[in-house]
Write a structure and sequence with these properties.
Distance between the termini: 149 Å
Strand order of the largest sheet: 4-3-2-1-5
Structural class: alpha+beta
Number of strands: 11
Shape: rod-shaped
Radius of gyration: 43 Å
Helix content: 55-70%
């Protein structure tokens, strides 16, 4: 081991400088003593708990004490580096090993100072000067032209408990945490899927959405925990995520409104794919659904994309929502025609229709004495899929039977009366 006794006066001057700096502090701070810097090797988690209850002025003292430790370590490092550059052989190798160890110790101190500075800033302090100092002295400079120095620095860093070993431990913890999070995410998403299937409501799209979002949220929590295993401060990260979420939510409030409406549509299922509906003033068959919009294929073969917010906020008519449907028709005869005969013809036409359901029974009644006709209402029931077949077939056969049996189908008429006035 090289003789470092020539550098001891430098360490004494460093201690004296720290003492003089303490004298220049305000009286309120000089009278206080640092509580956390007594053990420079304290774990960062424990240090965070130690500084949490301290006030801003107390944290200023703690920050100054830790900065003095960092400064002393940096000055010691500088002197040993100077000595290493002026020696050769085994002595230089020993000094280079000491330089690498001192850099690791300085980095560990800087990490602990950062914990104190974050807490101080959170309580209203101004640690900018200290952060600038840490940034100026941090980092490792490798002289690639000096192979011995470079290899020694790398070897010491990899074998140091506060260097490569510590990083390897953190990486292993990160990977283990992510593996556990992946397993837990699969278990939780599976439980959600089984619960939704047992619940029995909601569409497959909504079920898949909840399963996927549950899995992703679980993985996100696992990532946050895993990042903390790497030594990353997750407090600022969570704050940034919250701010980003607020900004994105504000920018996409229209889309989020459609998203919320889509969730409600998929949960309560007023219609499904393949149903004939009338929504937002559009009538057609539902072609596809998503959490943001619904695509309708109109009866004249146009694809119309409607935002879910417009659908959920309006009247929804599901034409094919039920298995059966009543066909409402009106037929008129002349005032001079036989009502009983017309009623019998209508009854025969309805009974001859195979697609008309016997239950509920069809309704055929004289309904209205209109301006130029006596109107019958004819209301048979049929399967929803046979609605238009029954409507068109009955209309055609009623016209044919009325014509064959001499029952008139009147059209609007007006009687015009002309009066001739005699001349004066």
């Amino acid at each position: 081991m090289p003789d470092v006794r020539p550098f001891r006066p430098v360490f004494r001057w460093t201690a004296l400088a720290a003492f003089l700096v303490a004298l220049t502090l305000p009286a309120s701070l000089a009278s206080q003593e640092a509580q956390t810097a007594a053990d420079p090797t304290v774990e960062t988690d424990h240090l965070g708990l130690m500084v949490m209850p301290l006030r801003r002025d107390q944290l200023a003292v703690e920050a100054e004490a830790w900065i003095q430790l960092v400064q002393a370590k940096a000055e010691e490092l500088s002197q040993v580096e100077i000595a290493a550059r002026s020696t050769e052989g085994d002595a230089q190798t020993a000094l280079l090993e000491q330089v690498a160890e001192l850099r690791i110790e300085r980095g560990a101190l800087a990490e602990r100072v950062t914990v104190v500075l974050d807490e101080w800033e959170r309580k209203g302090g101004d640690p900018e000067e200290y952060r600038s100092y840490l940034g100026a002295i941090s980092g490792v400079e490798l002289d690639v032209t000096d192979t011995n120095a470079m290899l020694t620095t790398i070897r010491v860093w990899f074998t140091s408990p506060d260097g490569g070993i510590r990083l390897l431990r953190r990486v292993l913890l990160f990977m283990a945490t992510m593996f556990v999070a992946w397993i837990v995410a699969g278990m939780v998403s599976g439980l959600v899927r089984r619960s939704l299937q047992r619940f029995g409501k909601g569409s497959d799209l909504l079920r898949d959405f909840f399963v996927k979002i549950t899995r992703q949220l679980t993985l996100l929590v696992g990532v946050v925990i895993a990042l903390s295993m790497l030594g990353i401060q997750i407090g600022p990260l969570l704050a940034a995520m919250g701010a980003a979420g607020f900004i994105i939510g504000f920018a996409l409030q229209g889309t989020l409104s459609n998203f919320a409406s889509g969730v409600m549509l998929l949960m309560y299922r007023p219609f499904d794919i393949g149903d004939a509906v009338e929504v937002a003033g559009v009538m057609g068959v539902v072609d596809s659904m998503s959490l943001v919009s619904t695509t309708i294929n109109t009866f004249d073969n146009r694809l119309v994309v409607i935002p879910n917010n417009s659908i959920w906020g309006g009247v929804i008519t599901n034409i094919t929502g039920n298995d059966t449907r009543r066909v409402d028709m009106v037929f008129g005869i002349g005032y001079s025609d036989d009502i009983d005969k017309a009623n019998r013809i209508l009854q025969d036409v309805i009974e001859s229709q195979e697609k008309v359901l016997p239950d509920p029974a069809p309704v055929i009644k004289v309904h209205e004495l209109a301006d130029s006709s006596v109107n019958f209402v004819v209301r048979p029931w049929t399967l929803t899929a046979d609605y238009w077949d029954v409507y068109w077939d009955v209309t055609r056969k009623v016209k044919e039977r009325f014509d064959a049996e001499g029952v008139s189908i009147p059209f609007p008429q007006r009687d015009v009366h002309m009066y001739q006035e005699s001349g004066a």
